[in-house]
Amino acid sequence: MLKPLFACAAIAALPFGAQASTDLARQWGLEASRLSAQTTEMILTVDQGQSLEISGTYALDVYRFARTSAELARWVDTADRSQTMSCIFQDMAAESEDQLMVLELPNGAEAQRESLSRLASMFSDAQRVAIAAQRPVSNLRVQTAKSSGTCPSDHGSTSDALN
Question: CA–CA separation, 19 vs 15, rounded Å?
Fold first, then answer.
C-alpha cells in the first residue's frame, strides 16, 4: 500500500527537482555575472598599482560559486544531460577553488592579477553555461554513453557543449 504512494510521490517530485535545478543554474549564472564585474574591478585596482586585499566576502562568494558548480554537475549527471556539461561544471568548481587558494597566498601583484584574470574569464564563461544548463534536455546534444563519473582530459570545448 505504501509503495505505490511513495512511487507516486517520487514521480510527482521529479519535475519540481528539475525546475529547482534550472532555477539554481539561472541564479548561478546571475552570481557569475556579479562576480565577473566585481573581479574585473579588482583587476583594474591591481593594474593601477594599488594594493588589493581579497575580502572575506569575496572569498566566500567564490567558494559558494565553486560549491554550487559542483552541485550543478551532480544535477546534470542525474538528469541524463550532457557529460561534457557536467565536466564543465566540475572544472569550474575546481578552478574556483584553485584560484581562491592562489589569492589567499602571499603572492605578488602579478600572481594576484593572473588569478583574478582566470576567475574573470571563468565567470564570463559561466554566464553562457548557465543559459545552456537551463535548456530542456531535448534541446541539448546529450551524449548517450556515460562514463564512470570521471571527465576525460579532453572532453571537448565549452562552445561544443553549449551549442
Answer: 6
Task: Please answer whether residues 61 and 31 qualify as being in contact, where contact means their C-beta atoms are separated by less than 8 angstroms.
Answer: yes
pLDDT at 60 over 50: yes
Banded pLDDT at 162 (limits 50, 70, 90): very low
pTM for this model (two decimals): 0.74
- Summarised one tens digit per residue, pLDDT across range 126-161 is 999 998 888 776 544 444 334 445 675 554 444 444
Chain-centre distance for alpha carbon 36: 13
- Rg of the chain over CA atoms, in angstroms? 18
Domain boundaries, the chain: 23-141+154-162
pLDDT of residue 29: 93
Instruction: Write phi, then psi, for 100 (nearest 5 degrees).
Output: -65, -40
On whether the 23-141+154-162 domain is CATH 1.20.58, my answer is no
Distance CA(146)–CA(156), nearest Å, equals: 15
